[in-house]
Amino acid sequence: MRLAFHSSKSSVKLVRVTLLFTILVSLACNLPLRKTAGVSAEELRQTLMAASPNASQGLTAIAGVVTGVPPLPETPAFTVDPFLTPFTGLETPTPGAWAPLQGTAVPGMLTYEVQDGDTLGALAGRFGVPVDQIVSAVSLSAEGFLAPGQVLYLPDHLDETPYPSPVFPDSEVTYSPSSVGFDVRKYVQEKGGYLSIYAENLKDGRVSGADIVQRIATEFSVDPRLLLALIEYRSHWVTGQPSNPNDSSYPLGFHVAGQEGLYRELVMAATHLNIGFYGWRTGTVVETKFIDGSRARFSPQLNAGSVAVQNLLAKLFRQEEWRETLYGKDNFLLLYQQMFGDPWARADSLGLLFPIGLTQPPMELPFAPGKRWSLTGGPHPSWKTGSPPGALDFAPVTGEPKCAVSKAWILASAAGLVVRSERNVVAIDLDGDGYEQTGWVIIYMHVADQERIMVGSQLKVDDSIGHPSCEGGVSTGTHVHIARKYNGEWIAADGPLPFFLSGWRVYAYEKNYFGELRKDDRVVVASPVGSGTSIIIRQ
Q: Structural domain tally of the chain?
């Protein structure tokens, strides 16, 4: 969904706003303009209600929908109905709550239309305002996702921000349902460029250019079409030949010593995409730095996909070149559309990536009941730098040598289909459609090669997946790393879709790898050395 800032365009509305402002001044009440610290949302509502007690009559709640607010988009076809619960985010307006009629401007306030995936915390970070200064005609969820299309009012704190035009939908940046059916190998071979004959030696052998693109897309959960368009824009490898056939070290142009080759450059590209995307999701990344050292704050009305692309390209260009790359005559967006069609049309056809009322399906701790395991890592990146803190680490308490392949078994936390089992990673697709891009997916890492489950296996809860180890990635001790995705997005462990395992809820601390599990009055605290407070036994 594309967002919009609204302003009054009719004289009637202008008169209404002017009258409202006059009344407010006469009552000596302070609307939150540039100085709003210490004014709560309820105080703002009461002030507005006192100034215009009849204004709220045009906003009433009927069966959970507020009249005057655009209807919510329909749930997309790939939604898994058994995993949804009735939506309770749109409630009857709080007594005394007030909001202007739809589209009416309020002096000193911005009007914002909620996008798919927005949360109050993220919006507070993007707009630079306290959470309690964000108000609406209906109650707002303090922790969960806000309802797309809902209209919010925020103090106007920021100066004008540059580059407000959206460039990419979210679903064209992540490995989402939008990429289902796209065949990287076939596309690369049909184009017949240098990429079709390129290969690179990696740890597991010689890998073709097309397979490198697909590997990065799958592992980092980014759209392979975006990676291909970036390669073509920077080196013309997809449809043509390199300008210097004897030097293919830096096809994307990062030019980082020790990071030569397509694979490592794509790792950097995917990392910068994820830093922008998930940083915007949480409101923690609000500006980018260009290679010339200049900085620009992201316009707060942008979507996560646009910020991801803006952030990536800022690592490749000076600001003036970057502006031409995104908004100039022969820009990157036009190339992408020429290669793959209109990304916004595909996004519109999908509907919401986070359906209304989405909750996590039941999941169990990934080990057998009655066995002692240790929570050795609290919430930390789901997949390397840039991904959100969505993963947990569990280690079996067996007394085995450090980094030995454990005799203990990793068990399936939920029923599903194994859609990936390679390089010590197992991915279980819970909706069973065979696509890692759709629905809920559980990712397990450091699964030993020995007795690892095969792709195509249909699992029930508690079926064996493999053994925990140090294999795959960087590990200081035998353990299993478990994380979640939904519709191709990595899901934070302590966020709008909290992580529950056997009824234990995950809570993150400020630093990665620190956190705890809580269930009733019990608490398990993460510890990398397996202290007594980290022991957990599944009942």
A: 3
CB 430 within 8 A of CB 491: no
In the chain, the amino acid numbered 536 is: I
- Please tell me the pTM assigned to this model: 0.82
Per-residue model confidence as pLDDT tens digits over 287-332: 999 999 999 999 999 999 999 999 999 999 999 999 999 999 999 9
- Rounded to whole angstroms, the maximal C-alpha distance in the chain is 78
* 404 vs 163: CA distance, rounded Å: 52
Nearest to 172 by CA among 244, 225, 240: 225
Q: Which residues contact 68 (CB under 8 A, 6 or more apart)?
A: 58, 59, 101, 102
Give CA–CA dist 466/450, Å, rounded.
Answer: 7
Whether 262 and 388 map to the same domain: the answer is no
315 close to 254: Cβ distance less than 8 angstroms: yes
Expressed as residue numbers, the domain containing 215 is 170-350
Rounded-to-integer distance, Cα 317 and Cα 165, Å: 18
Q: Are residues 104 and 137 in the same domain?
A: yes
Q: Choose one of 284, 319, 350: the last residue of a domain.
A: 350
Same domain flag for 151 and 178 = no
For the stretch 249-256, contacts whose Cβ atoms lie closer than 8 Å and that sit 24 or more positions apart, written own/partner, are: 252/316, 253/316, 254/315, 254/316
pLDDT tens track for 93-117: 332 233 444 445 667 789 999 999 9
CB burial readout 454-488, b (16+ within 10 A) else e: eeebebeebbebbbbbbbbeebebbbbbbbbbbbb
Same domain for 401 and 518, yes or no, is yes
Residues 38 and 139 in one domain: yes
**Is 194 domain-assigned?**
yes
Structure tokens at 477: 């001790």
